[in-house]
Write a structure and sequence with these properties.
single chain; 465 residues; alpha/beta; 2 domains; 9-stranded mixed β-sheet; two-stranded parallel ribbon; 16 helices; 42% helix; globular; binds adenosine-5'-triphosphate; binds magnesium ion; RNA-binding; coiled coil; EC 6.1.1.7
Length: 465
């Protein structure tokens, strides 16, 4: 079953307009990347622009959660369900239908179209949302409806604007496969897999001059939902980890073949990280996000360097991602034709960026290992800074290398050295061990033209979404 198509058709049949995925770079300086399907509708939800003639829409939105408030970069490779880039299916009502229909549609799609067994499904609602409770109990056993507080089940765009309780649908992957204390509903474990979040925008939040927040009921509430496609595919294929699904397996197999290493329990995380990061950086390149030292390009660089470092662990000493790119195209190229159309460009950019890091990674790793041998609790901030500044190791890469050893970087020292250096350089820094210079950009522009180029970025505040 093509779940993406099934979903969009399902909601089209319920009167929704099918809307294309918006770019990964939103037209919103406070938001690093498009991180949910609702982002392109934000101004409609707030009332800043009038609602469209058809007040209901559905989409399959490419999302990146690797920067800003939603950052899953560190989760990738450690959980079974997080990606830096993923596809979010969503249906939206702009002051049209509300809870009753949103819940009924979701339930119908999950139980009839996807044919997920009812005895594996659980739902969560907000503590105070008796209305959602009364609707849900028409569909599911009452003991399968669990209430949670604001932290889990209340959504807001920021301090002000539309907000409301949400209700999430979970799939129980079976007690027999999980043993951690975290594997309960609402925990961080993977037994109860969150698949779909239904947001009921029914309040407007305002803040007075003393900072007091007031919520008033919206006369015409709205609906925003989001379901992770990769998770649903994994469930349908009967695998417990997204990376074991057909979305990722061919890439992982290809990397296994290229590395000439066999997958083991110890190295499987590296294969997963590489497969994930290849997808994310390729899509980012396809949308004109290059590698660089600031803003979005720096996020892309961090993702790629994390992939290279895991490649290094698997024995790669020169660029390898381009060789797995065609496998990615085989999986997603028919839906995302830009991956095919820009294949040569993307492979070339991946390779150039990998080369930059492979040049210094050997030395960096040996400096890292020397320091590690001396480290008891806190890894030297000076060395972390040197790794960053001279060898191109992003701080989160160093932190990631220390994570399974339960060690932390002396961040205060790192930050101090960073500010000192910034003060010295005053403007955007140079000489960070990276060779991406204006010259590179110029030759790129000459070669590929200006149209897709997202150049210098300003610094971002935390996302408010
Ligand atoms: P989780 O608790 O698993 O981190 P979330 O509550 O942060 O998920 P939402 O913001 O509610 O996620 O997004 C809606 C849906 O998008 C989720 O129910 C999930 O199916 C999917 N999703 C969210 N983050 C990711 C991710 N990093 N990778 C893949 N799918 C994701
Ligand atoms: Mg999350
Ligand atoms: Mg969640
Ligand atoms: Mg959620």
């Amino acid at each position: 079953m093509d779940i993406r198509k099934e979903y969009l058709e399902f909601f089209k049949n319920k009167g929704h307009d099918i809307v294309s995925s918006m770019p990964l770079v939103p037209d919103d300086p406070t938001l690093m990347f498009t991180n949910a399907g609702m982002v392109q509708f934000k101004d409609i939800f707030t009332g800043a622009i009038p609602r469209p003639q058809n007040p209901t829409a559905t989409s399959c939105q490419l999302c990146v959660r690797a920067g800003g408030k939603h950052n899953d970069l560190e989760n990738v490779g450690y959980t079974a369900r997080h990606h830096t880039l993923f596809e979010m299916l969503g249906n939206f009502s702009f002051a049209d239908y509300f809870k009753e229909e949103a819940i009924a549609y979701a339930w119908e799609f999950i139980t009839v179209n996807l044919e997920l067994p009812i005895d594996k499904l659980w739902v969560t609602i907000h503590d105070d949302d008796d209305q959602a409770y009364d609707i849900w109990k028409k569909h599911i056993r009452e003991d399968r409806i669990k209430r949670f507080d604001d932290k889990e089940n209340f959504w807001s765009m920021g301090d002000t604007g539309p907000c409301g309780p949400c209700s999430e649908i979970f799939y129980d992957q079976g007690e027999e496969h999980f043993s951690s204390d975290e594997d309960y509903l609402g925990g961080e474990g993977d037994r109860f897999l969150e698949i779909w979040n239904l947001v009921f925008m029914q309040y407007e939040q305002t803040k007075d001059k003393d900072g007091k927040i007031t919520r008033t009921s919206l006369p015409k509430p709205s609906i925003d939902t989001g379901m992770g496609l990769e998770r649903v595919i994994a469930i349908k294929e009967g695998v417990l980890n997204n990376f074991d699904s057909s979305n990722f397996q061919p890439i992982i197999k290809k990397i296994e073949e290229l590395s000439k290493k066999q997958i083991t329990d110890e190295n499987i995380g590296s294969f997963r990280v590489i497969a994930d990061h290849l997808r994310a950086t390729s899509f980012m390149l396809s949308q004109g996000i290059l590698f660089g030292n600031e803003g979005r390009p720096y996020v892309s660089r961090r993702i790629l360097r994390r992939a290279v470092r895991h490649g290094y662990l698997l024995g790669f000493r020169k660029p390898f991602l381009a060789q797995a790119y065609d496998t990615l195209c085989d999986i997603l190229g028919s839906h995302y034709s830009e991956l095919k159309e820009q294949a040569d460009y993307i492979k070339e950019q991946l390779t150039l960026e990998e080369e930059r890091f492979f040049k210094t990674i050997d030395l960096g790793m040996s400096i890292f290992n020397d320091e590690l041998a001396k480290t008891k609790e806190i890894f030297s901030g000076e060395v972390a800074f040197k790794l960053y500044d001279t060898y191109g190791f992003p701080l989160d890469l160093t932190e990631d290398m220390l994570r399974d050893k339960n060690l932390k970087v002396d961040n205060a020292k790192f930050d101090e050295l960073m500010s000192e250096q910034k003060a010295k350089a005053k403007a955007a820094w140079k000489g960070s061990g990276d060779t991406a210079s204006e010259g590179d950009f110029k030759s790129l522009l000459e070669k590929y033209g200006k149209n897709n180029f997202v150049g210098y970025e300003k610094t971002f505040e935390n996302s408010t979404i």
